Amino acid sequence: MNPGTFKILQFNMQYGQPWDDIYPDTAPIRLQNTIDEIRAHDADIVMLQEVEQTLPGGSQAQPPPHYTRLRAEFPGYDSYFSYPRPDSRELPFGIGLAIFSKTPLREHVCLNLPSPPVEFDFFGEKKTPTDRLLIGATTVIGGRPLRLFNTHLLAFFMLNSSSEVHLEQRKLVEDQLRSSAEMPTLLTGDFNVSKHQSLIQQFADAGYLTVQSTQITWRRRPFVLDHIFYNRWLQPTAWAVKPTPASDHHTLTAEFQFAG
Fold first, then answer.
1. Which parts of 110-252 fold into alpha helices (H)?
2. What's the pTM?
């Protein structure tokens, strides 16, 4: 890889739960599968969602066990992790975001993304969604600063609603993109937008393109949920979507060089 060129991995790791075609929701956690998948890509930057699993009553394990294991498995990377704000309403699914980088991370950011009080049914109980999260950091590659953002938005389509109606989380992410428009910036994540063209247009208006919008990135439904967005200071030279049995999400990778 040429100096100044780097590879990024976007991966919703579903807290280490592998995919099972017959029993996808009850497969036992196998974090080693996640580790093997990440290692196989040898990316310079790794962006992860659903690093941990929420404990009963919305509890958050401290220290976060999966993140702790990943740090030990990848000692050549600097890293940053955050849970969202604790909430007893949290359901027992994936939670927590992480950034791993072969170059040091600084200027960490952690931004709460409030969720609207949209009611939904969960096994006969009325629930409202918990808040989401965006994290960020700055690194330097080939002497050039690079701003990194990672997020995981609320899946409104699972609540019989839409983020096109409830735009608040997307707007908060857009604000962060606009604030970093004058430097090389990447945004990755599981955006949970089923009709992804509206998301792509919104961020294009802010000066950011996605590396791909045609290949499905989720096993459960034919949606493009995962993206790597970049601004005019960066130029993608390759990208790939790769199905993996390590999660219900596929991996998305891209290689970049600095423009100009």
1. 168-179, 196-205
2. 0.97
